[in-house]
Amino acid sequence: MRPEFEDQGGYEQLDSCDERILAVINELHHRDDPLPDDLNERVLFALELEAALDARVARISRENELVPMRGETEMTVGQGDPASITFDCETVTVMVTPRPSAVHELRLDGWIGPEGIYEVELRSGDGSKLASTDESGRFVVEGLPGGQMFQLVIRPEESLQRNGLPAVVVTPAVRL
Description:
The chain is an alpha+beta fold. It contains three helices and eleven strands. The strands form two sheets. Strands 1, 6, 7, 9, 10 and 11 form a six-stranded mixed beta sheet that branches. Strands 2-3-4-5-8 form a five-stranded antiparallel beta sheet, with no helix packed on it. Keywords: Carboxypeptidase, Hydrolase, Protease.
């Protein structure tokens, strides 16, 4: 044992009691906060986007609301009043608000900053819908089925890319 750690017991051999304690901690961890089944695919997806497409993967930014755990694969938005969701990465912020528009359909109002023209692709299980922002970064996508997962792919115009924005920003998938 190194002299600076003599009084801490940091290098003693594990005994059967230590192994039982670690086994219980491991079991609790796997039961209450398991790793997502698709963790490897998520990491590879993010790395491939950033490397190949100069894309950034935005994160959900929600103050004082749901805190995602590692085991979650989706977040639910809605029920009653519309809930805004904000996604952000280093240089781009996207805020979306789902609103009822017709029976069993939703409308997604969105704003992207910094201001400018963006192409917005909304991906869902039903396919993709395209929209463009106005110069202030505002967009609308209508006719969305409620309860489905969706993901946004944001592509800034070339002038914004020349000013330092990535070519592609992808949001995590969320459920409306």
